[in-house]
Write a structure and sequence with these properties.
The chain is an alpha+beta fold and about 210 residues long. It has a single domain, classed as Alpha-Beta Plaits (2-Layer Sandwich). It has an 8-stranded antiparallel barrel. Helix 1 runs antiparallel to helix 3. The two termini are about 15 Å apart.
């Protein structure tokens, strides 16, 4: 089963570039040396100093092994002086994924819209089904959609997904779709807190062969 490894860090004021440099070095090593890497997406929120890396791997044992390899420990050593607190590490099972037509995706305007849902006990499958219906609609009706993904941590009921779009205007346009309001209404009774949606700036995108 494909797995998402998500690392979230917050840079001290004035330390974002150093943290980004350290993370970029590790990402380039993963892209070169880890054969099962399908995608790496690095996003940020410059206003808060947040840096998040989202790695998609073909098998669950790939991210599990990262704690035992030199490039990960080297990164943590390099990053630690620039962080406001501990790095948050989360792993998710991939539930749904869509890649665009394979054209090269690049440009300063790339935008990620991230959605987080906390499913009530016993309602995870219903939340995922509603989210997947929404993603299918976006895939078919919104041009400039490059990646759509939903993932889940069944132990906690956390469902997280994102859409990678060609620019901010395209990402924002999704919110005005009738399907967006219908999705929010469908999941509202199934979640413990309001749906969370945030947009991030894309710093780096790598797509492996076949992705």
């Amino acid at each position: 089963m494909s797995t998402i490894l998500e690392l979230t860090m917050h840079a001290k004021p004035g330390h974002f570039d150093q943290l980004n440099d350290a993370y970029t070095t590790m990402v380039e090593t993963i892209e070169h040396d880890v054969a099962d890497t399908r995608m790496i997406l690095v996003v940020s929120d410059p206003t808060t100093g947040m840096l998040r890396g989202i790695g998609l791997y073909e098998h669950a044992n790939v991210p599990e092994g990262f704690t035992n390899v030199p490039f990960f420990s080297n990164f943590m050593t390099a990053a630690e002086p620039h962080l406001t607190g501990p790095t948050e590490r989360l792993e998710f099972d991939v539930h749904h994924i869509f890649f665009g037509d394979g054209a090269k995706v690049e440009g300063a305007q790339l935008t990620v819209a991230e959605i987080t849902l906390h499913a009530r006990f016993g309602e995870v499958d219903e939340v995922l089904a509603a989210y997947d219906d929404f993603l299918e609609y976006v895939k078919t009706n919104v041009s400039g959609t490059w990646v759509l993904l939903s993932s889940v941590d069944r132990g906690s009921g956390l469902v997280r997904g994102f859409g990678l779009y060609s620019d901010k205007a395209t990402a924002d346009s999704v919110m005005s779709l009738p399907a967006s309001a219908a999705f929010a209404a469908a999941v509202e009774p199934l979640i413990t807190s309001p749906l969370e949606r945030v947009e991030h700036r894309v710093l780096h995108l790598f797509r492996g062969e076949g992705s």
